[in-house]
Design a protein that fits this description.
The chain is of the alpha/beta class. It has a domain of about 50 residues. Helices cover about 35% and strands about 25% of the residues. The protein has nine helices and ten strands. The chain has a six-stranded mixed β-sheet, sandwiched between helices. Helix 4 runs parallel beside helix 5. The relative contact order is 0.17.
Length: about 250
């Protein structure tokens, strides 16, 4: 399990994050939800090890990784822009990280990941020949072959539309459950968070506004901010919100 406990971050005299605490179980998806500038990407970078923590601790499996270098944490990230190499084909992108870790994943396991993500017909295509959804699946496969303990996703659906977005959403849910990965997703989209996550950490001005299941956030918002943020961002009447996400309106 990943535990983030009382974490804070300060840039100069500005407190960007203050007293952030939450946890993620194996196979569980937690979305970091908030408006632009709320601190969610900064929090993701601290968990990954790209940015130092100013206060609090981060534990994985009861081990303190707060000051551990990124390479030693066993976490991995899929970036918003995929960060794929355009001069390599899909399979070479997927296996690129294994060049320095040849014994980490077998060829058979690589093929299993490719098949699991429906990429077998596309594995020899160049990146410019792939659709947005296929690029996202290549990025996911590249992460999976590195066998991460924790999967971090930065706005994974923002560049996708319609059926492709729903397909990738289902793939992410399958990955988390199939491989027992603690999964953290950064998003600004309440609908994305509500339909994709097991739990949501809603951040407002660098502090935790609510950490709960989607159902509880809809049914029992912790504050007026939580209630208004969800309803306003979805641009939907509160009565319809319960029906849309499987609740009941009293």
């Amino acid at each position: 399990m990943l535990h983030v406990q009382h974490v804070s971050k300060q840039f100069g005299e500005k407190m960007v994050l203050e007293d952030i605490s939450f946890h993620v179980k194996p196979g569980e998806i937690v979305s970091l939800l908030g408006a632009s500038g709320s601190g969610k990407t900064t929090l993701l970078k601290m968990i990954l090890g790209l940015m130092p923590v100013d206060g609090g601790t981060i534990h994985y499996q009861d081990k303190d990784v707060t000051h551990l270098p990124m390479k030693k944490r066993g976490f991995n990230i899929v970036f918003q822009d995929y960060a794929l190499f355009p001069h390599l084909n899909a399979v070479d992108n997927i296996t690129y990280g294994l060049r320095n870790n040849p014994d980490l994943t077998t060829e058979a396991e690589v093929e299993e990941y490719i098949d699991f993500l429906g990429l077998t017909p596309h594995k020899h295509k160049k990146i410019h020949e792939l659709s947005g959804g296929q690029k996202q699946r290549v990025a996911l496969a590249r992460t999976l072959v590195m066998k991460p303990n924790v999967l971090l996703l930065d706005e994974p659906l923002s560049a996708l539309d319609g059926v492709i977005k729903e397909s990738i959403k289902e793939r992410i849910q399958s990955i988390a459950k199939e491989f027992g990965l603690a999964t953290i997703i950064v998003t600004h989209d309440p609908e994305e968070a509500l339909t994709l996550s097991d739990k949501i950490l809603l951040i407002n001005k660098g502090r935790v506004a609510q950490f709960d299941t989607p159902e509880r956030i809809i049914q029992s918002p912790a504050s007026t901010f939580v209630d208004e943020f969800i309803v306003r961002q979805l641009n939907i009447k509160r009565r319809n919100l319960f029906t849309l996400f499987g609740g009941s309106y009293a």
